[in-house]
Amino acid sequence: MGRRITRSVTDEGWSGEARGACCCSALLLVMLLVIDGLSGGLNAARLTLWTALAALLFVVLLPSRVTAGPGWLTTRGLLGRHSVRTDLLVSVHWSDGVAQRLVLRDLAGEQVVLDPRVLIDNPALWHLFDGGVRASLGRGTLLCGATALRELSRRAEREVSRTVLELSGGADWLRPEDRRPAA
């Protein structure tokens, strides 16, 4: 009778980032082939090397595709698919390194590593993720990560507020350092 409809949401910016990764790797390949061709050193071995280098750049630049639904979040990349139950999270923390990543681990031991900008830039993804986190907090399963979640929540709320102000014409009220750069 009262069947619940579950809706999933996917990262809206993924296709553009994937296209950018493809264009960058294709541009590198074309530049290397043109330079090597003009110098007269292009042969089958070098063509294979340059193609492999461009493919490696594509693999490095291609972001994982993030999809979320009520109580779950999944990332899909070239190396596989990883899912966590956001309503059964055990820990949330920031990974160390050059690029800031959010590491989520659930009660079953599953782990997802993702760029926090994906959640911040996609309000629908953030809403589903936040609902799952609140369920984890309510169940008492989330043992570690309150600080990381507060920081992420502040960043997401600031981004939503900035977007609302810009769309409503109230961007003049923003401090200069909070304004987005002009496109």
Structure report:
The chain is α+β, with helices and mostly antiparallel strands and 183 residues long. It is 49% helix and 19% strand. A four-stranded antiparallel sheet has the order 1-2-3-4, with helices on one face. A three-stranded antiparallel sheet has the order 5-6-7, with helices on one face. α1 runs antiparallel to α2. It starts with 8 loop residues before the first strand and ends in a 15-residue tail after the last helix. The model has no long low-confidence stretch (mean pLDDT 86).
Structure, briefly:
The protein is an alpha+beta fold. It has helices at residues 14-39, 44-61, 116-121, 123-139, 146-168; strands at residues 9-10, 65-69, 72-77, 80-84, 89-95, 101-106, 111-114. Strand 5 (89-95) and strand 6 (101-106) form a beta hairpin.
